[in-house]
């Protein structure tokens, strides 16, 4: 089984005011089949971690490593990262005009596996996954994310996750904008991927709400671009009660 290692990761962005350092030495190791929650106050660098793993060009790696089974992820193109087994759902999934959902999924699946999926199994798999996520059939033939509501985009993201069967997924604020019913459906999809495909998960969330449905094995608390605390699921319960105040040491 595989392992994703983040070692002493330091990341900055260029802004109009100059270079802004965001991640200040992040260490995180995720084994396949494990669920890690990354929590923390707004602006602590959670999304920056997701974007950096995804290879977003805006985020400059100043030091440290990201390794997938010892392979240097930072040297990989975005496509190579996907082929290596990383799934990187971003906070704002992109619309792809002119490309239907089915064609997109099939193309992505083919690129990742290195061969086209057998058509009969594939059609059945897509149908089953869409049924599980309570997605209307019409979504198959609609352009990717075009005119989808926030909740529909999230479901579509999980549809991709279930069909592409990555080794590791990074989900950033997947719960934002979802009502309870949609949150349940989306969480069940994530749990299915976890149980069926031994998915390793980096679940980024400000709120503990989604952790009622997706149970983390480990919880990491981000503060000012660093892991300030880590523990088991009980840490999430504590954060639910106490918030992040005790990590924000303000000098008086
Ligand atoms: P979180 O997801 O924990 O809320 P982010 O990673 O989005 O935090 O942001 C961390 C800090 O870095 C914030 O202060 C944010 O304003 C800043 N930041 C993130 N991305 C950019 C960017 N592209 N340009 C300028 N500042 C950024
Ligand atoms: Mg588990
Ligand atoms: Mg964020």
TrEMBL record:
All residue ranges annotated as the ABC transporter domain in the record: 4-249
InterPro entries named in the record: AAA+_ATPase, ABC_transporter-like_ATP-bd, FeS-cluster_ATPase_SufC, P-loop_NTPase
Molecular-function GO terms, alphabetical: ATP binding; ATP hydrolysis activity
Pfam families recorded: ABC_tran
Gene3D superfamilies in alphabetical order: P-loop containing nucleotide triphosphate hydrolases (3.40.50.300)
CDD domains in UniProt: ABC_FeS_Assembly
Keyword field: ATP-binding, Nucleotide-binding
Family to which this protein belongs: Belongs to the ABC transporter superfamily. Ycf16 family.
Protein name: Fe-S cluster assembly ATP-binding protein
């Amino acid at each position: 089984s595989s392992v994703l290692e983040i070692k002493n990761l330091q990341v900055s962005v260029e802004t109009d005011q100059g270079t802004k350092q965001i991640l200040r030495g992040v260490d995180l190791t995720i084994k396949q089949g494990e669920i890690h929650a990354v929590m923390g106050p707004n602006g602590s660098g959670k999304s920056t971690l997701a974007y950096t793993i995804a290879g977003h060009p805006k985020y400059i790696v100043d030091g440290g490593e990201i390794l997938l089974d010892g392979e240097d992820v930072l040297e990989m193109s975005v496509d190579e990262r996907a082929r290596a087994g990383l799934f990187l759902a971003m906070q704002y999934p992109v619309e792809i005009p002119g490309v239907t959902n089915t064609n997109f999924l099939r193309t992505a699946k083919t690129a990742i596996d290195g061969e086209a999926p057998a058509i009969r199994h594939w059609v059945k798999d897509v149908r089953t996954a869409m049924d599980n996520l309570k997605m209307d059939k019409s979504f198959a033939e609609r352009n990717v994310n075009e005119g989808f509501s926030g909740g529909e985009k999230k479901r579509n993201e999980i549809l991709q996750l279930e069909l592409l069967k990555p080794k590791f997924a990074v989900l950033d604020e997947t719960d934002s904008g979802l009502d309870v019913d949609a949150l349940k459906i989306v969480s069940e999809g994530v749990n299915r991927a976890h149980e069926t495909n031994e998915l390793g998960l980096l679940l980024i969330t400000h709120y503990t709400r989604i952790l009622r449905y997706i149970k983390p094995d480990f919880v990491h608390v981000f503060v000012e671009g660093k892991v300030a605390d880590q523990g088991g699921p009980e840490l999430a319960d504590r954060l639910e009660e106490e918030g992040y105040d005790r990590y924000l040491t303000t000098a008086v």
